[in-house]
Design a protein that fits this description.
Length: 382
């Protein structure tokens, strides 16, 4: 008999012939998550198991953050032949539980000597007889469920903790996230990573106009994301020279837009280098001047890669709730400036004209500026 973690997967169930590919990725991601705790991980019979961890609760919390995991249960594994021992263990597990309960047996091993309704009845009676003062049976709306799964062994558990869901990272290809220090972009990255996409992050830094604290804040956000994303590579791109050039040579009301076009071009260059096939931003329609339909078109048109904006239809308050849920909100709210807030025009163009953009951009040595920025990017592994 031993205590272990039973891990259930969600959407992978729906996969057909390529399910083994997704399961292999899931097991690998759970192995990485359990490694710091010395946990052993294996797949058996539509469940992933983790045992022998040196800190059970901490390891469970870590595994709950693995995309592809639907829920986890701390379970007791026992020999299934000894039903008396199973009854005693069930009694022990329900000793401190108060209220209504039912037993829910699942017999994956159809050759087991008792069917599920019989297990429910026998185990339920055994537990009730010994705990009548604090437990009552309610088969329709129980407050507590004592689950028994009969597989190669018997597994008993009474608590199920929901996990993050989604698909295992690495099964959905790779994309580059434009990561600012704001609330939106970490949430956008999380949403895409949750669908199994491996992320590489790109941050534009305008030292000394933006401080070391601002850069550290973004790396802290990257670190939070890395827990879900199985690590994170961040390109910190020096952006000061480009911003200064734009500020000096381009029409003031177009500076933000031209700056954003440069961000996209550089991001595409880095994405190609990294084998990433799409860009991700935290933009949402109407949130700021650079996120009108016209402005979004003007930034989109400088790259040929798809640009995914998972927050495009979200209200700010919904994005904030999401950020709280994934644990990035507090860090995002630290008051350090972003390069977008340096040299902001008083009246940024919300309906930019192509010829005016061209007039401004023609004054810049685009290729040299981009090349230099990419070359001098600092790479941080989190
Ligand atoms: P956020 O909360 O993500 O900063 P925002 O409302 O401040 O969003 P903008 O500043 O216009 O909006 O930025 C829109 C998107 O552009 C961001 O979500 C992010 O993807 C990208 N972005 C902005 N600033 C940077 C930066 N310094 N480095 C990398 N990407 C950036
Ligand atoms: Mg921002």
């Amino acid at each position: 008999m031993r205590k272990l973690l039973m891990v259930r997967y969600g959407e992978i169930y729906l996969k057909g012939l390529n399910r083994p590919y997704f399961l292999k990725a899931l097991v690998n991601r759970v192995k990485e998550a359990a490694k710091p705790f010395g946990g052993k991980v294996w797949l058996h019979d539509a469940r992933v198991f983790v045992s022998d961890m040196n800190d059970f609760d901490a390891c469970m919390e870590r595994v709950r953050k693995v995309f592809g995991v639907h829920s986890v249960c701390p379970a007791i594994e026992m020999e299934k032949e000894n039903f008396d021992a199973i009854c005693e263990q069930a009694d022990l597990m329900m000793k401190d539980v108060h209220g209504t309960f039912k037993v829910e047996a699942r017999r994956a091993d159809k050759r087991y000597f008792m069917d599920s309704p019989t297990i429910n009845k026998k185990l339920g009676e055994y537990v009730l007889e010994r705990n009548e003062d604090h437990l009552k049976v309610d088969v329709h709306h129980p407050e507590h469920i004592l689950s028994v799964e009969i597989r190669d062994q018997a597994y008993l558990y009474c608590q199920v903790y929901m996990a993050v869901g989604g698909m295992p990272v690495g099964t959905g290809g790779k994309a580059a996230l434009l990561l600012s220090g704001g609330i939106d972009s970490p949430v956008a990255g999380y949403m895409i990573a949750k669908r199994g996409v491996q992320l590489v992050s790109i941050h534009y830094h305008s030292f000394p106009y933006t401080s070391e604290f601002a850069k550290q804040k973004v790396l802290d956000l990257g670190k939070i994301l890395s827990e879900y994303c199985c690590g994170m590579k961040v390109y910190v791109v020096p952006f000061t020279e480009i911003q200064m050039e734009i500020h000096e040579k381009c029409p003031e009301d177009y500076t933000t837009l031209i700056m954003r076009r440069y961000m996209m071009r550089i991001a595409e260059r880095i994405a190609k280098k990294e084998g990433a096939l799409a860009l991700i931003t935290g933009e949402s329609v109407g949130q700021v001047a650079s996120q009108t339909m016209e402005a979004l078109n003007a930034t989109n048109s400088v790259v040929s890669m798809p640009v995914f904006r998972p927050l495009i239809g979200f209200d700010k308050s919904d994005i904030m709730d999401y950020a709280r849920k994934i644990g990035t909100y507090e860090t995002s709210c630290l008051p350090y400036e972003d390069c977008c807030t340096v040299f902001t025009p008083k009246h940024p163009a919300t309906k930019p004209k192509a010829d005016k953009i061209k007039e401004g951009e023609d004054k810049l040595d685009q290729e040299a500026l981009i090349e230099k920025a990419v070359e001098n990017a600092e790479i941080v592994l989190l």
